């Protein structure tokens, strides 16, 4: 009987492997002690539940008894869920990059018995093909080298460990004013002029990069950069990467047109998608896109509530595969549509959504609207199309469904809370605000420990301590909720939470040079303590912390938060200058520091004023921070430029404040944009 020890895991990814004939161990002291005692190297396999190629390697190799026998004989085998343990994933993915590999999942790394990496790769086929060696051949070669050629192993290990121990240079460099705008305009040149997104394939949403380009367009007035962002969001929203029947965005497109997705749906992608739909949708756009973006908000929010809600928050992901076949749940043939809608309606639907006998994906069709039709016989009213989509969804729900990873991650839910709040403002949907508030309350009430937030929660079990990303993302969520709160008392509660999270972050994650480690000082020791400036599919934790700290400084007037943000930028200054694409999240926060404006709306009771809200949102500027107070409110300190502001002529009055001063009082929302330009000096 195989000594597989994953049966008691809570991670859905690890549970997928509990019946493998591989003697898997979860990461922990017991597995590492076993490696040291046995003298065997460690085979570390890192993946996640929704990962297609993780499933392929599992079916080919980890479920094969002959392959498992080789693994069990020569290695201590450790399986890690990258979403549950991003610290382990980040360390060993960094090592793989140092080997010159592009990276990806499954991550397959070979470690010494002290957990130090010496070689690795990603997916290995069971037998050699596609120019890649067979997995068994790799296993035997690595084991032989480990036992008989230790000088080579040690040389590799030493080189990789030296790389992993490298930290950003201790010499801070001055970051020029306007760097975020300059960098954003440079990145705008990478946008595909036909399909949007970064040029070429595959295409990822690249949320932080697109936000930086948008900010640069706002600062510079560059219409090409602005239009590139709009095009990217429009093509993404009409492509097959978007689920036109059920709502929600897939992780990426394998082609350059956004047509064929990698079908897994991740919570973090949809959180950032909602944010961008609301941001770009608030601006004056080309005809049709505002309505399109509003629909995508409504549909994506409905999908989240219908398929991703678990306990009081949201699940991590939906699988790429259904019964071992990628995308099986989502694709259609013309005849299948006919069976649901009937002849004439099906013909029209298939024409609108590119469903044809030849198909656009392995003989079947992924619904998309990349090719607009001018055929007047096609119905163009959304009400008709929506009715048809609802009928198709009903039938699709009777099919086998992809697996759901139902663990709750604090950082991803933090991103979603912010996305829901911003989307609620744009489409005036109170239910989205309520969903955000419920989720926020669940995370804080359920996942807070003595030393801070836990990272993951499932089936009553938590993974703790959490990471800096968890605290930073919840800070962003708290500040976003405060800005949109219906009355000052509620806003003050969220700001108190944000301060507490900031203190926990500073107490347990601070680096002496500024910024924050990924892991807590209360966490188990790893071979290095991750400390990075670089975004992944989500903004880097230091970037989220910097953004939240700058906004918290504006909202409270407490300079300590600005100082901590500036220390982050200083600590990673060289990294920013070397790689603006990888540090777009930090550059977005720098833009908020440089161009941030606090918009204080004074009303009689402290209730938000809809007209001023609409005017501020229409600016589509992420560097505007909103706060509503009652006339005579003394919650801001006396040194704050917006302290003790009052109504003018008994009307709701707006004060735009930055750099220690406020502009003149404003009672007409029509003049908000002009006053903002005057305040910023252009």
Strand order of the largest sheet: 1-3-2-4-5
Give a quick account of the main beta sheet: strands, pairing sense, barrel closure: 5 strands, mixed
Helix count?
25
Tally of individual domains: 4
Judging by the overall fold, what is the CATH architecture of the largest domain? Alpha/alpha barrel
* Share of helix, binned: 40-55%
DSSP strand (E) fraction? Answer: 5-15%
Number of strands: 23
Description:
- The chain is α+β, with helices and mostly antiparallel strands.
- Strands 1-3-2-4-5 form a five-stranded mixed β-sheet, sandwiched between helices. Strands 21-20-22-23 form a four-stranded mixed β-sheet, sandwiched between helices. A three-stranded antiparallel β-sheet has the order 8-11-14.
- The longest helix is centred in the last third of the chain and has 22 residues, at 488-509.
Produce the secondary structure layout.
Elements: H1 12-15, E1 24-26, H2 29-38, E2 42-47, H3 52-62, H4 65-74, E3 76-81, H5 86-98, E4 107-111, E5 117-121, H6 135-148, H7 150-164, H8 179-188, H9 207-220, H10 223-238, E6 252-253, E7 261-262, E8 265-266, H11 267-282, H12 289-308, E9 309-310, E10 313-314, E11 317-318, E12 321-322, E13 325-326, H13 334-341, H14 343-352, H15 382-396, E14 404-405, E15 408-409, H16 410-427, H17 430-447, E16 448-449, E17 452-453, E18 456-458, E19 461-463, H18 468-484, H19 488-509, H20 541-556, H21 559-571, H22 573-578, H23 584-595, E20 597-603, H24 610-617, E21 624-630, E22 653-658, E23 661-662, H25 672-680
Parallel strand pairs: 1-3, 2-3, 20-21
Antiparallel strand pairs: 2-4, 4-5, 6-7, 8-11, 9-10, 11-14, 12-13, 15-18, 16-17, 18-19, 20-22, 22-23
């Amino acid at each position: 009987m195989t000594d597989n020890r994953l049966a008691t895991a809570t991670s859905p990814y690890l549970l997928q492997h509990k019946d493998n004939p591989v003697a898997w161990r979860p990461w922990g002291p017991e597995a590492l002690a076993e490696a040291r005692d046995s003298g065997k190297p460690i085979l570390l396999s890192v993946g996640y539940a929704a990962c297609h190629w993780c499933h392929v390697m599992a079916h080919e190799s980890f479920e094969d008894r002959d392959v498992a026998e080789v693994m069990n004989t020569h290695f201590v085998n450790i399986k890690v869920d990258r979403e549950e343990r991003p610290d382990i994933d980040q360390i060993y993915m960094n090592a793989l990059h140092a080997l010159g590999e592009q990276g990806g999942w499954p991550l397959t790394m070979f470690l010494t018995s002290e957990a130090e990496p010496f070689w690795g790769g990603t997916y290995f086929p069971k037998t050699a093909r596609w120019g890649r060696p067979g997995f068994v051949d790799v296993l035997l070669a690595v084991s032989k080298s480990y036992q008989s050629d230790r000088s080579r192993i040690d040389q590799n290990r030493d080189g990789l460990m030296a790389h992993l121990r490298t930290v950003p240079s201790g010499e801070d460099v001055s970051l020029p004013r306007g760097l975020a705008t300059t960098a954003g305009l440079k990145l705008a040149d990478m946008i595909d002029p036909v399909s949007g997104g970064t040029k070429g394939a595959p295409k990822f949403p690249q949320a932080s990069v697109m936000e930086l380009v948008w900010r640069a367009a706002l600062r510079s007035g560059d219409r090409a950069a602005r239009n590139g962002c709009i095009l990217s969001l429009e093509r993404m929203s009409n492509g097959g990467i978007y689920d036109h029947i059920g709502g929600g965005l897939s992780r990426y497109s394998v082609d350059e047109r956004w047509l064929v997705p990698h079908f897994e749906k991740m919570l973090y992608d949809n959180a950032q998608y909602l944010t961008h739909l609301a941001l770009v949708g608030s601006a004056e756009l080309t005809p049709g896109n505002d309505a399109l973006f509003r629909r995508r908000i409504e549909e994506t929010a409905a999908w989240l509530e219908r398929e991703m809600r678990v306990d009081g928050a949201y699940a991590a992901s939906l699988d790429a595969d259904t019964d071992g076949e990628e995308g099986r749940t989502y694709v259609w043939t013309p005849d299948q549509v006919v069976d649901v809608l009937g002849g004439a309606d099906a013909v029209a639907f298939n024409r609108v959504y590119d469903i044809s006998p030849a198909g656009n994906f392995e003989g079947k069709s992924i619904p998309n609207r990349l090719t607009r039709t001018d055929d007047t016989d096609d119905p163009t009213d959304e009400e008709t199309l929506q009715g048809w989509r609802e009928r198709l969804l009903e039938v699709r729900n009777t099919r086998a469904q992809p697996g759901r990873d139902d663990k709750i991650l604090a950082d991803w839910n933090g991103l979603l809370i912010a996305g829901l709040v911003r989307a609620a403002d744009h489409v005036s949907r109170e239910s989205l605000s309520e969903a955000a508030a419920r989720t926020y309350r669940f995370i804080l009430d359920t996942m807070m420990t003595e030393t801070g937030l836990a990272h993951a929660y499932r089936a009553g079990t938590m993974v703790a301590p959490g990471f800096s990303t968890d605290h930073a993302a919840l800070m962003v969520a708290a500040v976003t909720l405060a800005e949109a709160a219906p009355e000052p008392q509620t806003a003050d509660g969220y700001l108190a939470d944000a301060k507490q999270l900031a203190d926990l972050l500073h107490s347990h994650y601070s680096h002496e040079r500024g910024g924050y480690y990924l892991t807590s000082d209360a966490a188990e020791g790893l071979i290095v303590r991750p400390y990075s400036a670089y975004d992944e599919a989500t903004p880097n934790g230091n970037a989220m912390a910097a953004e939240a700290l700058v906004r918290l400084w504006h909202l409270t007037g407490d300079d300590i938060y600005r100082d901590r943000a500036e220390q982050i930028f200083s600590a990673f200054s060289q990294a920013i200058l070397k790689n603006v694409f990888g540090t777009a999240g930090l550059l977005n926060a720098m833009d908020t520091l440089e161009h941030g404006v606090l918009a204080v709306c004074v009303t009689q009771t402290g209730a938000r004023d809809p007209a001023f809200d609409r005017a501020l949102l229409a600016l589509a500027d992420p560097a505007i921070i909103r706060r509503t107070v009652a006339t005579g409110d003394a919650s801001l300190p006396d040194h704050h430029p917006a302290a003790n502001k009052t109504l003018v002529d008994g009307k709701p009055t707006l004060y735009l404040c930055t750099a220690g001063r406020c502009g003149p009082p404003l009672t007409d929302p029509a003049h908000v944009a002009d006053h903002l330009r005057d305040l910023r000096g252009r």
